[in-house]
């Protein structure tokens, strides 16, 4: 049995969007509610933090250096120090009610970012994409809280989840990687947890952080649960693969909306964990601008 370990002595508020830099051999992640992007280098233990003026829902590393960052009100290009350089687009939702949340890049280096509808009274969130020429496009609507974007290793499928509605979708992609009609991949019932952030491996399996479920689950390309890994905290938020061989699973977790009593009982809530696994993950593309 693989041994779960804490990455280092860090506990965040709402860590999300773990992203492995192959070039730097370092892990990046966002703390959404603190408006931060963190970097940690496992070899030398160096930890640095970039602060932003509002929540950082998700980001990606750019081929040209720096980041593309989806914050509450807008998506921006920044330099490596987090300095805002260019606004790509405004949040097409009502930013007071729907901040940006989960996101990442597709195999062509385009940036996907979804929103989370805070009132929860209907499916008011959406998924958008920033193309390589910086054109913004709304890709999907009818979502309450977007999460879980990941792509199959053959680039034929895009996976997403709607966390409050406890469903994982898959969407076929054509030869130009344009999405077709989404379909239900997995639906969950009370007690199983709800699907949050995710990643895919080279065998085409989908790894989901099961928020409120105390676990990480691995699903086959047909939607069958193949494995699960128990956690010492209730709410994992996202996973990514990294390490020199891409066989380390990094797991972010949260303490958002937890009582002081629960945090005291489960003090590792908000920590980042590592888990060695037997299969390599699909590498994330850098965001490519043309």
UniProtKB/TrEMBL annotation:
Quote the Gene3D superfamilies the UniProt record gives: TolB, C-terminal domain (2.120.10.30)
Location of the SMP-30/Gluconolactonase/LRE-like region domain:
14-254
* InterPro entries registered for this protein in UniProt: 6-blade_b-propeller_TolB-like, SGL, SMP-30
Q: Where on the tree of life does the source sit, at the highest rank? A: Bacteria
Q: Which family does it belong to?
A: Belongs to the SMP-30/CGR1 family.
- Recorded protein name is SMP-30/gluconolactonase/LRE family protein
Species this protein is from: Leclercia pneumoniae
